[in-house]
């Protein structure tokens, strides 16, 4: 397993601030946005509005944080930081995956550090309070005998698994619609059997941009000329309806339509769900799912489209299954191929810095160096992510310029508008509450 991470950022986290007047200012800015235009500059650059995003959006919605493959054994954990909140996702001794606040119930020290690890118990490094993997306080030296230790377990965070994808919600009362999304999405994802995968590689990339720029960039292929490696297999007319396809892309699109029809027929024969379901704006856990063809051999994100991993996932009988594409609001996108899965989680670090955690999953029995090479497996998305990071950094710099004015979205950016409309709707709902 290859793990690549930037050097840790030791700057102190900014404390959360109440949204109050900042929320009112954010609403004014949203009201000022002309239809289907990018957001006003301060939405991407103002630290106080970033705090408002954290409290109005990130602390209320379901967020994708990882997969079951990252916590395969009892005691395995991953951590995610969401603003100043840190969450530990771990598999307990009964094999159940849980999420807990990464905050000691004694005097608040952080408990576990690092993005991944394995613990027997969770032991605070400060005064050694010791918690079980289920969060119960097991041992606390020299407490008065009357202390109710049963009430001093780690605070749970809501966690929901959807066919191996792990979502957490920091709210006391999370949006209930994840049940609907799970019912719709799980049958698409389930054949890839994430419970029988392992992490082949993971890369944490810090983009120098606001989280919304990271997401907006992901939601369109208008810029895909800037992704030569991805263009080998990713049809660039993604997101365009037939009548929106420009003449110069007609041949590509005709090839896409023919490949789609063939993939749909074969998916039906194999009993694999494939049809587009899109509900990106109205529901809290907005999503879009569809199985779509890949260009070339149609198997994977390699230069010629042939598979990158010899051992296929689950019990999938053939490699030419294109990619199952899944987007979830506000922070994730996924590509499930027959031979591997790539997951992407965007997490806000600061108003102008966003972590993009990319994880490549392969069959648990696939052998590195025999069934796959990590460099080849990861090449397309490592290159694409670096290119996207440059686009995002360039945009952050531009929207911070006093000369920036919001500009109109093209026909190829309907999903960007869907993302911004989703954001707008969630902010308004949260302020109204
Ligand atoms: O990764 C994705 O799903 C999106 C879709 C279009 C551009 N980007 C590659
Ligand atoms: Fe954790 Fe004291 S702060 S044991």
UniProtKB/TrEMBL annotation:
Its cofactor is Fe cation. Keywords: 2Fe-2S, Iron, Iron-sulfur, Metal-binding, Oxidoreductase. Signal peptide: none annotated. Residues 62-168 form the Rieske domain. PROSITE patterns: RIESKE. The keyword Iron applies. InterPro entries: Rieske_2Fe-2S (IPR017941), Rieske_2Fe-2S_sf (IPR036922), Ring_hydroxy_dOase_asu_C_dom (IPR015879), Rng_hydr_dOase-A (IPR001663). It holds the Pfam family Rieske. This is Rieske 2Fe-2S family protein. The lineage of its organism: Bacteria, Bacillati, Actinomycetota, Actinomycetes, Propionibacteriales.
């Amino acid at each position: 397993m290859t793990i690549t991470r930037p050097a840790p950022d030791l700057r102190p986290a900014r404390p959360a601030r109440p949204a109050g007047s900042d929320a009112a200012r954010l609403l004014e800015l949203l009201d000022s946005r002309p239809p289907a235009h990018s957001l006003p500059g301060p939405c991407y650059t103002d630290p106080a509005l970033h705090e408002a995003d954290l409290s109005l959006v990130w602390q209320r919605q379901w967020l994708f944080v990882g997969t079951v493959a990252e916590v395969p054994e009892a005691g395995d954990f991953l951590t995610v930081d969401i603003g100043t909140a840190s969450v530990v996702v771990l598999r307990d001794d009964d094999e159940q995956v849980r999420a807990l606040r990464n905050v000691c119930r004694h005097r608040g020290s952080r408990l576990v550090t690092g993005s991944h690890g394995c613990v027997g118990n969770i032991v605070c490094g400060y005064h050694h309070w010791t918690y079980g993997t289920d969060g119960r306080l097991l041992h606390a030296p020299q407490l008065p005998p009357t202390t109710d230790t049963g009430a001093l377990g780690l605070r749970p965070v809501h966690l929901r698994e959807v066919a191996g994808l792990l979502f957490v919600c920091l709210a006391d009362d999370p949006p209930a619609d994840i049940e609907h999304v799970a019912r719709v999405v799980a049958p698409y994802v389930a054949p890839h059997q994430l419970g029988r995968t392992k992490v082949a590689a993971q890369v944490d990339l810090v983009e120098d941009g606001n989280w919304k720029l990271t997401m907006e960039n992901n939601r369109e292929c208008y810029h895909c000329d800037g992704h030569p490696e991805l263009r080998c297999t990713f049809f660039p007319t993604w997101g365009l309806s037939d009548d929106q396809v420009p003449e110069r892309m007609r041949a590509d699109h005709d090839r896409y339509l023919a490949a789609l029809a063939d993939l749909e027929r074969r998916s039906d024969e194999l009993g694999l769900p494939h049809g587009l379901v899109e509900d990106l704006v109205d529901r809290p856990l907005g999503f879009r799912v569809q199985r779509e063809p890949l260009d070339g051999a149609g198997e994977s994100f390699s230069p010629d489209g042939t598979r990158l991993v010899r051992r296929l996932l689950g019990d999938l009988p053939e490699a030419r299954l294109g990619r199952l594409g899944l987007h979830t609001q506000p922070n994730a996108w996924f590509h499930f191929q027959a031979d591997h899965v790539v997951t992407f989680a965007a997490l806000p670090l600061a108003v102008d810095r966003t972590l993009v955690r990319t994880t490549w999953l392969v069959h648990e029995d696939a052998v590195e160096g025999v069934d796959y090479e990590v460099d080849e497996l990861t090449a397309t998305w490592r290159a694409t992510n670096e290119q996207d990071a440059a686009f995002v950094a360039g945009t952050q710099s531009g929207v911070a310029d006093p000369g920036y004015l919001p500009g109109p979205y093209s026909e190829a950016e309907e999903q960007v508008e869907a993302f911004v409309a989703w954001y707008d709707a969630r902010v308004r709902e949260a302020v109204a509450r």
